[in-house]
Structure formats: C-alpha cells, structure tokens
Amino acid sequence: MATIDGLPPLREVIAAHGLSAKKSLGQNFLLDLNLTAKIARLAGDLSASDVLEVGPGPGGLTRGLLAEGARRVLAVEKDARCLPALEEIAAAWPGRLEIINGDALAVDPLAHLTPPIRIVANLPYNVGTELLVRWLTPKTWPPVWDSLTLMFQREVAERIVAKPGDGAYGRLAILAQWRSDPAIALTLPPEAFTPPPKVHSSVVHLKALPAPRYPADAATLNRIVAAGFNQRRKMLRSSLKGLAPDMAAVLEAAGIAPTARAEEIGLEGWCRLARMIAGGEG
Ligand code: SAM
C-alpha cells in the first residue's frame, strides 16, 4: 500500500529491520501514519521551526513531522537498531532530517538546531518526566524551545495540568504551569501502540511563557514546593517548618492559612510565599 512519503508502511519497516520492541527502552511504537501526522499537527505550524524529536524508533512520528512541513528535524535515538530505517527517511527528505544515535539526556539541541525550536516526541516512559523537568528548568528563561508536544502516560499528563484540590496536583503541575501553558491535546488507548502499554497515553502541549507567570526565585520556589508536597497530608506550618524562623507568621503574611495543606495552594500563593521567604516584596 502506498504511503504519503512513498516509504513502506511501518509494519514492513519493523519486519525488514528486525525492530522487535524492547521494554527496557520504553518502546511502544505508533504505526498509524494518519495518527502520527495528527500528533505532528498538534505542534502547530512547523514550517518556520526546527524540531527536536526524542526517540524516533522506526520513524512514524518523524515521518509525520516531515510530511507536515517541519523545516528541519533532529531525531535522537538511543537504539542503534533503528538507524537504517531512519536513514531511509532522511534519504526521502534530503537535507531535512539529522539523526543522532545517543541518549537524549546528553544532547544539546542548540549544537544542531536553530531557534525557534519545537520539541515533539512520543517519549520513552523511563526518561519522560526527567526530560520534561530539564526542559522546564534551564539556566535562563525563556528557554531555547517555543513549545513541547509530548506523549506521556495519561497519569503523568494529568499531573502536569492538575489544579489545586486535584489528587494529581503537586510539584510537576507547579513547575509546568509556572513557566508554560500546558494542556492535554489528545488521549490514546493502549491499542494505538505496538506493543500496547498497560495504560492510556496522552499528548500534552506546553507553550513556553515569555516570563514565569508570577515572579519568584526558582530555587526557593522549588524548595518550598518540595517540602510542602513531600508531606502533603500535613499542615503547611509543620511541613514548611525550618524554612523560616516563624513559619506560621510568614504564611499569614503571605495570605495563606498556616493550617492549609500543600494541595490547597495555587501557583500564585506558592510564588508569593517564595518571595516572602527569599526576602522579597511579598
Ligand atoms: N517515536 C516512536 C513512535 O512514536 O513510534 C517511538 C516511541 S517509543 C515510546 C520511545 C523511543 O525512545 C524508543 O524508540 C526508544 O528506543 C527511545 N529511547 C529510549 N530511551 C532513550 C533516550 N534516553 N534517548 C533517546 N531515545 C531513547
């Protein structure tokens, strides 16, 4: 059957290159090129952007990104078995696909790509959260990327977009929502993947804000949020004890009840508290 880019269907690619999925590398492949094109479209107009794709595997999403007009794609894949299949895609799209065989945690996209950069990936579950946290905590802000369009396990996606009072609300929500606008764009059942994972997956689209949503020192915010959510059942006056000489008074001054729990405090409240603790204007 002909495909949009003239390359073989992904099932044939996998058979031809012996790409049996490895659990240790989080390999759950998307084989439906209509679906991978749809995911590529969730990243918006790619014609004026370079794209970083982590974990292209046999290249379904890579083909979607190129077919949807990505200016250039840098695909970083740890599994060397996938390289011949990816080279075939590069040959079909001359000058538009660069492939690196390596660990995405060790690659500096700026050494290969020109901003604006969009990051689009069906992430391996074992390093997905770590990569997201790195992208959200660069040394300087705004970051090198404009947007992230990332497939996670649905449970992780829900933690990224959670609001105060949700069971999933915690550090990841605060980190993501402080510096970006995250939204779940698509949820897929296990059967959409080969082999099917145990759980549903969701694509989260995060657009970088030009500046953090509320002023706060990143290290202080991270410290108090970590302390608050590490003991999420405790009242803040006790979970944050030790971060200021009279924590109850600092909480009161920030307009937060000392008896409140971490999951009740919105992003603005956490940032206000971070400013008070860092000795700012409050
Ligand atoms: N993009 C493909 C798709 O949608 O069908 C494959 C997605 S699969 C969920 C994750 C991919 O990430 C696998 O190809 C795996 O080999 C690769 N991978 C795992 N750990 C990696 C790492 N640290 N750096 C780069 N790629 C990695």
What does the model show?
This protein is an alpha/beta fold and 282 residues long. The mean pLDDT is 96. The termini are far apart. 41% of the residues are buried. The longest helix is centred in the last third of the chain and has 13 residues, at 218-230. It contains eleven helices and nine strands. The protein is 34% helix and 18% strand. The radius of gyration is 21 Å and the shape is elongated. Strands 4-3-2-5-6-9-7 form a seven-stranded mixed beta sheet, sandwiched between helices. The chain binds S-adenosylmethionine. Residues 25-30, 54-57, 60-61, 76-79, 103-105, 122, 124, 127 line the site of S-adenosylmethionine. The site of S-adenosylmethionine has 22 residues, from strand 1, helix 3 and strand 3. Its EC number is 2.1.1.182. InterPro entries: KsgA/Erm, rRNA_Ade_diMease-like_C, rRNA_Ade_Mease_Trfase_CS, rRNA_Ade_methylase_Trfase_N, rRNA_adenine_dimethylase, SAM-dependent_MTases_sf. It catalyses: adenosine(1518)/adenosine(1519) in 16S rRNA + 4 S-adenosyl-L-methionine = N(6)-dimethyladenosine(1518)/N(6)-dimethyladenosine(1519) in 16S rRNA + 4 S-adenosyl-L-homocysteine + 4 H(+). Specifically dimethylates two adjacent adenosines (A1518 and A1519) in the loop of a conserved hairpin near the 3'-end of 16S rRNA in the 30S particle. May play a critical role in biogenesis of 30S subunits.
